[in-house]
UniProtKB/TrEMBL annotation:
Keywords: Transferase. InterPro entries: Glyco_trans_1. It comes from Adhaeribacter soli. It comes from the Bacteria. It holds the Pfam family Glycos_transf_1. Residues 217-387 form the Glycosyl transferase family domain. This is Glycosyltransferase family 4 protein. Coiled coil: none annotated. GO terms for molecular function: glycosyltransferase activity. Signal peptide: none annotated.
Amino acid sequence: MKNENKNILYLSYDGMTDPLGQSQVLPYIVGLCGKGYKFTLISCEKKERFEKNRAIIEAICKEHDIDWQPIPFSTKPPILAKYYDIYKMEQKAVELHKRKNFAMTHCRSYISAAIGEKLKKRFGVKYFFDMRGFWVDERVDGGMWNLKNPFFRTAYNYYKKQEAGYIANADMIVSLTEAGKREIQKWGSYRQAPIGVIPCSADFELFSLVDSERKTAARKLLGFSDDTLVISYLGSIGTWYMLDEMLEQYALIRKKYANARFLFITPEPPEMVYERAEKFGLAKEEFVIKFAKRNEVPVFAAASDINLFFIKQSYSKIASSPTKLGEILALGVPVICNSKVGDVAEIIEFTDSGIAIEDFNQESYERVVNHIPELLRKDPASIRQNATDYYHLDNAIEKYYELYKTVLN
């Protein structure tokens, strides 16, 4: 007999009032509500964003009958604050389970997984581990944890042991990439739990296909002429995104295309770009740097001829799915990027949407420059269409629905 209990506890250390919560958590939950599941959502909310965006999230949750249980995100004392947050989330989860009898916990990333694993052991609740990348190794690869420091080395070893438990005890594992899935299957902790692959989705309604009218309007808004070759970058800078290498690539493009300009759509201060640009002989006038709210991003990005992003290559990045790639392809904009990050190179090839270099050197940069005429000839509608199966939110929701059924039935 099938399990008719469709009460799901969704645990997220990321806040719903964060941009990530609004783009990569709530849309999935809303879609699954439409499939008959009833959600209780625990998230950790940062004070300033909570005050600013609370009403928006409450309205969405009320409309879809989602029981949102926000918990204040702690910042002090450092490190211990995280453990306090985990404690608060766990206490809330246990209290709610005793009232609601959850069939499953959907755990977004590692901190939530610690709670899901405990609920499984204590109450027999099914445990769905939505990994969102190799969190522990990301701390090291991203430079946050220096393993020469005994404290961070201890933390790394502790969390790797925890990670092994999260993998071994899961009823379902979700990887963002096929490359990540293949790696997990090699781990000694892996116990044959099914692994689904669901990349970060893009909102194809918000990031709609750019036509000539929208492109012209965006260029006028940003001060670009019709004959400017607009190279764009979308998102944060630092840690994973290789500003120096992107500037070096742009400088080489600029030598051949004197009409090129670099558009940054980023929350970072412009000075961050200008300071590094001097190293490559690039003046401020080369750049247009704009901060954009989420609904403004596609408005500005519509000015692009080509989008450029380079991501640091590392072990942990094989499990990463850059959200920006799906959004860019949804707009129909061709891409210059790099391989050895998740499934990026395979996606670029599958969608016929651009070029992915393997190495950051003069030869690779020159190959990109020589490739630009071909990039400019690509059909935006074809790029978008080819990316739809891979990145469309509706397809991701359908995949989650099938995985939920696998666990619960």
